[in-house]
Amino acid sequence: MLLFLVIVLAIISACARPAPSAPSPTEAKPPSQAAPASATPITEAPLTEAPKAPAKTQPPVDAFAELYQAAKAEGEVIWQIGTPFELMKPVADGFEARFPGVKVKIVQASAPVMVARLVTESGAGKVSVDVAFGTIAWVKPLLDRDLLVKGGWESINGVDKSAIFMDGRFATVYGFANVIIYNTNLVKAADVPKTWEDLLHPRWKGQIAVPLTTIGASVLFKAWGQERATKYLEQLREQRLVVDRGADAVSQRVANGEVALGDTIMSIIPAMKASGMPIDATPISPQRESPFGVYYIKGAPHPSAAKLFIAWMETAEGQAAWKATGRGPSVPCNASDAAKLFCDKGVKLEIADTLEKAMAQEEMIEQARDILGLKPPQ
């Protein structure tokens, strides 16, 4: 009887146990699939451990080659110059030889006039020039209107980074420095003026040509002070100055023997002397200097050709082409023919190498122009 009761209790206990629950859908796992016998098992590495290709396996991009292809598709670059094309020909020829299929088309206009023209054209939505000339101060109206393109030239291999100004919007090509020149057929060696005061001699009355664009004697405000410089300019005004629109016209007038002396730009003189013209520089010092350069604006008709042209100008090849024109930096003495001539004559320069200095120079030029009573030639 006791044995019967034990058996019955065991059966009841077994029936009371809950059955194992089935896995929930979220816990279910698909059956693993065996890889085919021929497949090689793949082990996935964490993303942070992925191997990186060495930098040297990525060849550097040839920016000039890319620009050249884009410029070649445009076919030409329109370049504004204020000097006779013959003087600029080494630059145009050198570029066309280096980049066949991209022609240099010339537009003649003075730098200040071109700035005003570009402001107007940009407002009308039709820009006619790709690359233009000017000083840092002259292009300020374009900078103020955010029209200057940041060319990125300093990132191109082979470009002289020291020549890039205004946060990549302006590339200098030569020094724009005043100098007093004379006609060697009209002025005896003993009579060549050596100081600013020498220009006040009675023999020079009616014999000094000056440009409207830049006045060398304006540097005297900084060198001598306001009072002394003003008094000097008032005396210089009595010399009956001959007014021309630009430095090129002044230089040509002196070379032709129309006047004995001229206030002009040194970069023009070496090539004129080399061609046999009877002119030379005086040692009158100090003189003002502002970097002269190139730029292009938004809306330029051939932007790739513009960028390529300017970049090439700042390579060793382009700078050699500039040197062939007689132009180049004003310092040091071996930088260009103009720099050598300054050194040979012992001329000291007051260089405006920032926008602030350049604007200060422009204010002094304007003040000197007013005191001298200069008016455009009729």
Structural commentary:
This protein is an alpha/beta fold and about 375 residues long. The longest helix is centred in the C-terminal third of the chain and has 18 residues, at about 355-370. Mean pLDDT is about 85; it is low at about 1-60. The chain is about 35% helix and about 15% strand. A hairpin with a 4-residue loop joins strand 4 (about 165) and strand 5. Strands 3, 4, 5, 6, 7, 8, 9, 10 and 11 form a nine-stranded mixed sheet that branches. It has two domains: about 65-175 and about 290-325, Periplasmic binding protein-like II (D-Maltodextrin-Binding Protein, domain 2), CATH 3.40.190.10; about 175-290 and about 350-370, Periplasmic binding protein-like II (D-Maltodextrin-Binding Protein, domain 2, 3-Layer(aba) Sandwich), CATH 3.40.190.10.
